[in-house]
Amino acid sequence: MKIDQTKIDAFKQESGAITTIQEILRGRDADFDAAKNVRLVRHADNRKVKIIKGEEVHGSLYTLYRYQKDTFLQYQKEQNKKRFENVEYMVAFIGEKGTTARFVGVYKVGNRVPSPYIEDDIICDMDIVEAFEPFTHRIVIDWGKSTVSWCQDYENQFKSVIRIDEGFEDGDGIPRFTSYADTVLSFGQLEAVINSNYDNPWQTALRSVNCIYVISDLNNGKHYVGSTYGENGIWGRWETYARTNGHGDNKALKELLNIDPNYARKNFQWSILEVLPLNITDDQAVDRENLYKQKLMSRHKATGYNEN
Q1: Residues 6 or more apart from 237 whose CB is under 8 A from it?
Q2: Which is it for the CA torsion 48, 220, 188, 194, positive or negative?
Q3: Is residue 157 located within the same domain as residue 189?
């Protein structure tokens, strides 16, 4: 691959960039440097439902990458034949705010087979190139407003590096706790929180209060409303969901998981509707819970999973 440094310098002068992703990655792997067909890919598929391995998958690619990595990697392997038939390497990014994107690795594209799921698609073997792993998650680039295509030519589409930081804002797969009102957790995030170290801010926050919470099904819009009470606060109840694959011993949710063990992981999110005192009685908590069941119509089969 012959990248013209004169063109890079002209791009930097015009854009005000200090450096480009091409300059940072150059000289770290001889096979990559010699490749003739490399693609820049920004993963930012905004479709509500994605078809991955022939099945419907809900959620953003950002969430899939963070908390369902195997599903994300399968998505990345499934490509259009015409677009990826001769590609040797993929330089992959996850879309973040605006036109920014975070580097998630260089992948060597190997064997290709016709997709059994989508006509004219292929499934590619992709192996991470270890030489670039020190930069994984740390480099943030500007994808550019004038070149919005998600897949571009690495040799000619230069990308300015905005910053090099410590990685994802929430580190270790655990979202930052900001407030009870702002708490919205996927199942993968809930697992990460529950499995975190004791000194994580989430533990202190969730053990300090009780609440009325809602589990929302992103697949069909239904809700399950619950309450927590007792000395372990929200933590005590939500830990049960993390340990039971998402059903928390609730009958209706169990039935969903009996059909699809990954249903909660693909579709559920936990939110806090109202904070309650740690010393609230179970009767007081249930009274508040019933109010929210009425508001959200969660006892109706068409709109909810509550059965009482």
Answers
A1: 213, 226, 228, 248
A2: positive
A3: no
d(CA 294, CA 233): 23
* Three-state secondary-structure class, residue 101: strand
Residues 265, 204 within the same domain: yes
What is the residue range of 117's domain? 5-164
pTM, two decimal places? 0.63
* Residue range 94-138, pLDDT digits in tens: 998 889 999 999 999 999 999 999 999 999 999 999 999 999 999
> Beta strand 89-95 with 38-43: parallel, antiparallel or unpaired?
parallel
**DSSP sequence for 199-267:** TSHHHHHHHH-EEEEEEEETTT--EEEEE--STTHHHHHHHHHHHTTT-TT-HHHHHHHHH-TTHHHHH
Q: Report d(CA 133, CA 28) in Å as an integer.
A: 11
With respect to residue 54, please indicate whether it lies within any of the assigned structural domains: yes
Domain shared by 33 and 148, yes or no: yes
Whole-angstrom Cα distance, residue 158 to residue 62? 23
Q: What is the DSSP string of 103-154?
A: EEEEEEEEEEEE-SSSTTEEEEEEEE-GGGGGGTTTEEEE--SS---SEEET
Dihedral through CA 275, CA 277, CA 279, CA 284, nearest 10? -60
For the segment 252-290, what is each residue's pLDDT rounded down to a tens digit?
999 999 999 999 998 999 999 999 999 999 999 999 999
Which of 215, 213, 187, 243 lies closest to 63 in space, CA to CA?
A: 187
